[in-house]
Amino acid sequence: MTLSASLADSPIFGLIVGSIVTLAAAWWFWQKRTVLYYGMPVAVRVIDAPPAARARMVLSVDGTVREHPHRVEVQLICKGPKDIASSDFDQDRPIILDVGADIITTIGSPQVEPSDAEIPNVTCAGRTLSVPKCLIRRGQRISVSLLVDGAPNLTRQQIRLHNVTPKRFSGEGPRLGLVDTAGIWLTLLAFGYTVLFILVEAVTPLNEEPWWRQIAVPILGWLWMVWLILAISASAGRSIGKALSWYRRRPRKG
Predict the structure, then answer these.
(1) What total number of domains does the chain contain?
(2) Which domain holds residue 213?
């Protein structure tokens, strides 16, 4: 008897495995830590011209000539199962980001998505951007446009939030990691396995083998095999990631 056939002919096994995996995935998503992504998706020169022409052009702000003006946009994005409450800010300390260049001024007021979300009172000093304690809703995006003088490079100076993991993103926005992507596929495959199995067992008498059941048997087997491979790959990927993270943080002699 093949693996796919044995799986398809074990209704209790298939139902239990698929249901447990689906429920476990839902529990894992709800229990996982909220992530606050920060990044700089926009960083462009204000005077975008060839070097020869740029030398003849200057930008003056309040009577001060700026040598290397850039327009940047800093974003904070909350992802995860829960909001970031104002009480999550450790000792009411603000979020402080260093943009890597002197901030000349803000361009307009901070923008939020969705539009009915709380707009934080963002302040700037030197090279840093400060966001005080506030409610940051799940899925909310905070965008702040700045005019800076120098080459921008965003780093975090202070992000101390309870039960929240800060992560920097590059490009236009954060992307799902390998483990999260594998987890979504695991959930979809387990749910599909369970639904298809229940459909096959509920409609088909056990003593008959219609053509569609003969097709469903290998499909169920392949679903299980793909799920197993993804589960092993996700576990291995997370273990390797933790090992690499420990290796980078380990104390070095000398």
Answers:
(1) 2
(2) 3-30+177-241
